[in-house]
Amino acid sequence: LSAVHYTGVATAPFRQEQHRRAVPPGQEETVTMTVAYAEYGPHIGDQDALKLTVAGAVEETGQVVAKELRVRLHTPELTLTLLAPAVVGEETPVQVLFQNPLPQPLRGATLRMEGAGISCPKPLPI
Questions:
Q1: What pLDDT does 97 receive?
Q2: Deepest in the core among 17, 109, 115, 116, taking most CB within 10 A?
Q3: Verdict on whether the full-model pTM lies above 0.85
Q4: How far apart are alpha carbons 48 and 69 in whole angstroms?
């Protein structure tokens, strides 16, 4: 398991597992892997994805099969609600709702709103 930057460059793997199974004819085997945020969080940045690479080998024949899966991490939504009618030339109150999906507090976040008629948006620390 490794991180992949938005440029497509993969980082060094931060987790590796090896499983050995005997699979009877006509049967299938499932291997489950759970990755907590505490494990992958330090390895990813903004717009990164996770890359899971799995390879299997048949001892008796030496045949190898491999598969790769990229998992794009979704960013939380911002919900915007007008709290009063919007009138040209007047201030309009807007409610912005954001829910932190992480198991740790977010620090140093800022909110910046842009739009028609806003000539110089100022970051609002949160």
A1: 92
A2: 109
A3: no
A4: 14
